[in-house]
Specification:
The protein is α/β, with parallel strands linked by helices. The protein contains 13 helices and 8 strands. The radius of gyration is 18 Å and the shape is globular.
Length: 298
């Protein structure tokens, strides 16, 4: 039930498959993709809730021209093994990811996280697992749900996480290609058919869905927000104004509270903007990170 997707069957045509490897760290087996310059500056990529390395399918090769890129599937997502449910939380997943980075022997110079992936990077940096110069958030999910609605959402997510029938129901729904398309378009993004097919493959997995729901149930951003002022890395937030999953207003709110944050606005694209416009996102990441890389390697 908790087994990840089958690599031989489900991963036979996985994007950037040649860059894939399986690594044991933190008590679980990880699927991680490593590509790019062997001695180049290291760039860590973390996808968001419910996604996997497939979401970097077009962006990763572009970044690998100048960086040694490391992109894992999060715990329980894609082809990475699911740990104990208690570890599918912000601090728990950050600790596991720290174990992976240590096992790989890598020291990320910069890091990019989509949605919840940005929160994980910040937690890792605050806990000393990584020390990147810059953390770049793509439509970052950093603000906690507020008030009664937030508490109700958390309770509902916990109910779903504890109900073994829920992942089966959503996996059954994933057989409907039109439902997957509506789900993706509900984020404000229109991705290609290849991307839709890969999301459908993920959502057919009970294990992947259970990990996603458990992650949502255990997610608590309040402590992270309270400690954000102690972050030593420079935080850059790339915000697509068409994002329907994370309100662009969240970035403005964070900027008001923490003036040191750098905001980068995109007029086009939704929550999955890195899948819609990989060339634009790659160029922006290079603009943010490359000057630092050149100073450190030059």
């Amino acid at each position: 039930m908790n087994a990840p997707l089958d690599w031989a069957r489900d991963g036979k045509d996985w994007p950037n498959r040649k860059a894939s490897r399986f690594v044991k760290a933190g008590g679980i087996t990880w699927h991680v993709q490593v590509e790019g310059k062997g001695k180049g500056p290291v760039l860590l990529l973390l996808h968001g809730t419910g996604a996997s390395t497939h979401s970097w399918r077009d962006l990763l090769p572009l970044l690998a021209r100048d960086y040694r890129v490391i992109a894992p599937d999060l715990p329980g997502h894609g082809f990475t093994q699911m740990p104990r449910s208690a570890e599918i939380s912000l601090p728990g997943m950050a600790k596991l990811l720290g174990s992976l980075v240590a096992e790989l022997g890598e020291k990320p110079m910069d890091a990019v996280g989509h949605s919840a992936g940005c929160a994980l990077l910040i937690r890792m940096a605050l806990d000393g697992a990584i020390n990147p110069h810059a953390i770049i958030g793509l439509n970052a999910a950093l603000r906690p749900f507020g008030g009664g609605a937030g508490r109700a959402f958390s309770s509902l997510a916990r109910f779903f996480a504890l109900n073994p029938l829920v992942p089966r129901f959503f996996a059954w729904q994933a057989n409907d290609a039109s439902a997957i398309r509506r789900l993706m378009e509900g984020t404000g993004s229109r991705i290609d058919q290849r991307g839709l097919d890969l999301y459908q493959r993920l959502f057919r997995s009970h294990a992947h869905l259970r990990s996603t729901i458990t992650m949502m149930a255990n997610w608590d951003l309040v402590p992270l927000n309270e400690e954000l002022g102690h972050l030593h890395s420079i935080l850059h937030l790339i915000v697509a104004q068409g994002d329907k999953a994370i309100s662009p207003e969240d970035a403005r709110h964070l900027k008001r509270r923490h003036p040191a944050i750098h905001l980068h606005w995109l007029k086009e694209g939704g929550h999955l903007v890195h899948e819609e416009n990989p060339l634009e996102i790659a160029a922006l990441i290079h603009d943010i990170a490359k000057p630092v890389a050149l100073r450190r390697t030059g």
